[in-house]
Amino acid sequence: MINKILHAAEIALVRGLLAAIRALPVTTASNLGGAIARTIGPLLPVSRVAQANLRAALPALDHAEGRRIVRGVWDNLGRNFAEFPHIGNLPRDSVAGPGWCIEGLDVLDALHARGGPVIFVSGHFGNWEMWPRVASEMGFVPNGLIYRAASNKGVDTILTGLRKNAAGPHTKLFPKGAAGARSALLHIKIGGCLLMLVDQKMNDGILAQLFGMPAMSPSALAGLALRFNCPVVPAVCRRIGPARFVMRVEPPLQVPASGDRTRDVAAMTQAVNDRFEAWIREQPDQWLWLHRRWPKDVVKT
Predict the structure, then answer these.
(1) Residue 69 and residue 84: Cα distance in Å, rounded?
(2) Fewer CB atoms inside 10 A, N or C side of the chain?
(3) Would you state the torsion angle of the CA atoms of residues 7, 12, 13, 15, taken in this order, to the nearest 10 degrees?
(4) For the whole model, what pTM was predicted?
């Protein structure tokens, strides 16, 4: 009974917040979300995880710079939440103000000419919720997104509705888990485009390096690429202002073909982590440092 009451309260809170955000212009919503999150977030215990991660991964940073980055992480996270209901209305190639543009159109043109399935690999950079919308508008349909479902089913229904509204009717959503994995496999098999965020810890993944430290990493992406011989295309979202983004698409990673599947999966997984590390070093305040990416005996809080 208590859980039902708490879940109902959580649903009501999320609905109320989203209704209030929708009523605001997107720039105002983004600025407000960022201000609240960067004020409150650094005071929360989870920020100690981010500080520990930063000390281990980027030891040359001084304490003040580490605090600045953590505030930036919270600022970006707050902005992402406040921008979520507005994503479907953000214009492409706006000269000023909210909107998004693409870098790497030549890569996308080559993928269209090639045809067949493609995997876009990204992580929690900038506003990562933009990618389904961008993929649809760039003609990669049908596209599918593997996402982590919220534990509260009512909240998950709300967030799923927002994602579908933002991405358009050609996007399929696959929740993480056995059923979602089977659906994603079929989607790739019939030539679809799959969007995968694989920068977080996966306990049942494989061991790879990130910032020179062991990090359990998802291997499903590499397995799919090898099985279907499809391109793996790194794609990163960069925030350049309130609700304003550069969506950068890079040339496909080379798919290993040694004939040793275990070795090839490991090599592809490491190549993906190497791209993540490069992106993080470019703008560390736009990555989600708040999760325990490395083992506790490696990074101590």
Answers:
(1) 22
(2) N
(3) 120
(4) 0.93
Name all contacts of 271-276 with Cβ < 8 Å and 24+ positions apart: 272/121, 272/198, 272/217, 272/221, 272/222, 272/232, 272/234, 273/208, 273/209, 273/210, 273/215, 273/217, 275/121, 275/234, 275/250, 276/123, 276/199, 276/210
CA angle (225 as vertex; 224, 230 as ends), nearest 5: 125
DSSP β-ladder status, 213-217 and 206-210:
antiparallel
d(CA 35, CA 148) in angstroms, rounded, equals 26
Average pLDDT over residues 145-158: 86
In Å, how far from its chain's centre is CA 63?
Answer: 27
Nearest-angstrom CA–CA distance, 87 and 92: 11
Name the strand (E) or helix (H) holding 100. strand 99-103
Compute CA distances 216 → 100, 205, 206, 264, whole Å. 33, 6, 5, 16
Q: Is 267 helix (H, G, I), strand (E, B) or coil?
A: helix
